[in-house]
Amino acid sequence: MILYIDTETGPSTRPDVIAYLADKHDALRDEEHARKADDIYKRTSLSGLFGELWVISYAVDDNEPITLVRNGKDPDGEGAMLRTFAQEMIDLDNDINFPRNLDAVVAHGADFDRGMLRQRATAHGVYLPSAISAWGLRPWDRANRWVCTMELWTGDNRSRVSLGDLALALAVDAPVKGQDGVTGDQVWPLICAGQIDRVASYCADDVRRVRAIYQRIMSARRPDGGV
């Protein structure tokens, strides 16, 4: 079994964290510092320390993606979403036995998605099966099921290629990146505008793109063209 995952994140919504960041970077001193502080605040979405999860989408093998969306009106919206995701992963583990039958957890920029899921689950005291959290596992450890499509393509963990560019280059059978009118830098503005449904669709399409890319790359590694 192969699990494909993508997440969408945003900066902290906690008033104490926002106040801490504003004070730390002296946002009120002048306009330039205010802009810098706002940029630093938005960049917290790239780390599980202060960043938060808003959408989690995953697909099992060739099934349609299942997408979990955070309730922005619920102060515990992120925690509730993570508990739902964790229970679904636990149920899946009980059904198929991850250690024996989970061949891979695939994501584009897998370190980011794995880190956000693990760190935000920890922040809320939510248990994730070890195949998902991958606590203490190195990329080369046999127990580590996570696979990065970016690294599969580039051949190392330093070079970068965007999911959209790679999907376009390989001409895979998946939604064209941006066709839905959403790009990565629009995720947080759309969430703030109450259009998280568009973000959820974008995230599900990313799962479809990741799956198509992975299958194309892996088919080229087998003489019979299979995955």
List keywords for this structure.
about 230 residues; alpha/beta; Nucleotidyltransferase, domain 5; 5-stranded mixed sheet; 10 helices
Number of domains: 1
Just name the CATH architecture: 2-Layer Sandwich
As for the CATH topology, it is Nucleotidyltransferase, domain 5
- Give the beta-strand count: 5
CA-atom Rg in angstroms: 18 Å
Helix coverage percent: 40-55%
**CATH superfamily membership:** Ribonuclease H-like superfamily/Ribonuclease H
Low-confidence stretches: none
Overall body shape = globular
Note the quaternary state here: single chain
Order of helices and strands: EHHEEHHEHHEHHHH
Please count the helical segments: 10
Would you tell me the overall average pLDDT? 88
Q: Strand share of the residues?
A: 5-15%
How far is the N terminus from the C terminus? 11 Å
Query: Which structural class matches the secondary elements?
Result: alpha/beta
The CATH C-level class name? Alpha Beta
Largest sheet: 5 strands, mixed
Summarize the helices and strands and which ones pair or pack.
Blueprint: E1 2-10, H1 15-24, H2 31-43, E2 52-60, E3 66-69, H3 77-96, H4 98-101, E4 104-107, H5 110-123, H6 130-133, E5 146-148, H7 149-154, H8 163-170, H9 187-192, H10 196-219
Parallel strand pairs: 1-4, 4-5
Antiparallel strand pairs: 1-2, 2-3
Helix pairs in contact: 8-10
